Amino acid sequence: MRSALAGVGRLLGATALLSVAAVATVSNATAAEVSRDGLTLGAADSKNVLVLHASNSVEVFKGVLQDFSRLNPGIRLEYTELSTQQLYQDTVARAQGDATAKRGPDLIISSAMDLQTKLVNDGHAQRHVSAETRALPAWANWRDEVFSIGTDPIVMVYNTDKLAAARVPHTRRALLSLLQAPDRPLANSISTYDVQGSGIGYLAATQDTRLDSMAGALLAAFGRNGVTTHESTEDALDKLERGEITLAYNLLESYTRHRIDQGAPLAIIYPQDYTLMLSRSAIIPKQAPRGDLGALLLDYLLSPRGQEMLAKQSGMRPVNASVIPATGIRPMALGVGLLVYLDTLKKRHFLDLWRAAILPPGDAPRPDGNIPVRTHQADH
Asked: What are the coiled-coil residue ranges (predicted)?
């Protein structure tokens, strides 16, 4: 399984330069400004301003955007990192305020592919057709309005200093057995997404429920072992590196690989029963002031050069090399199938069951059943 999944990420073929539309260029040197939650590239006086909102970590995505900026020196790119929930809620709020106004971002990239699909389904995205979008496999393009730009396996990660290799669980059944072991090696030392605040966490957990008959038993075992919750993969990786927890369930591979490359004592588990393959998906909002520039960036990301840069800089897997016939790989296709657990009643029912299993007795429930918005940390 490990070697098969590693092969998923290899991009075949020579890299080609992207042919971009002509834009006004500026003679002075471009400026770059980086903050915790954003990045600005290009000349401040450019009349071609491209606004990108995404859940991708600034540090992880920076190299890709810098390459696009080098190819398009006449464009000022303003990037803001937001949570998947914030991306969704902001788009809906803008439309409710004045659906005809041209405001907000020109491109939205989110790892909550169900919320992106819902934005399309509810009429908040515009259609885009190009040679790059036409080259996508069917599962990666829905209605020419939402597109996969790369994929990311959802994995388990453990601290190699705290868990012996002989006890590492390679399936969910093995994880359940470890949680039930008499010596309780994972007691107060396991973490999973807070599905009440994370779009990715909610998507992964509901897909587990759909695919795995043991999902309820696993949640109950989490609760009995004093599970903690994380808001993002980065949050969980911080806890793992510090040794505060031993194992984290449902993390994104790309961010984990980045930590391992930096020397963190971590290892990835690709569950052999099934490994979900999540898409980072992009839409051009209906209200985009410069939808043409959003389309330009989208086509760059889908081009051979953009796909190679995404693989090298962010650790995402190229779209056309993401799915190979291998036991256990479960790619999630863009489309209406992702909307099932966004139904209000189904969501409320799922969250009630999740809270009952995970949260300590006495924790106040959230009676509206809604997933609250987190504004300060992207749930990547």
From this structure: none
Beta strand residue intervals within 194-240, DSSP E: 228-230
Q: Tell me the residue ranges of DSSP E strands in the chain.
A: 32-35, 38-41, 48-54, 75-81, 107-110, 125-126, 141-142, 146-159, 190-193, 228-230, 247-252, 266-269, 275-285, 329-331
CA 193 to each of CA 234, 307, 356: distance values in angstroms, whole numbers, following the listed order = 11, 28, 15
The pTM (predicted TM-score) of the whole model is 0.79
Nearest alpha-carbon partner for 149 in 24, 276, 334: 334
Separation CA 362–CA 18 (nearest Å): 56
Query: Is 103 in contact with 96 (CB distance < 8 Å)?
Result: no
Residue with the two structure tokens 């369930």: 249
Q: Are 324 and 7 in contact (CB under 8 A)?
A: yes
> Can you give the length of the chain in residues?
380
**Tens-digit pLDDT profile for residues 220-273:** 999 999 999 998 899 999 999 999 999 999 999 988 998 999 999 999 999 999
How far is the C-alpha of 83 from the C-alpha of 294, rounded, in Å? 19
Largest CA distance in the chain: 69
**What are the φ and ψ backbone dihedral angles of 351, each rounded to 5 degrees?**
-65, -35
Backbone angles phi, psi at 216, to 5 degrees: -65, -40
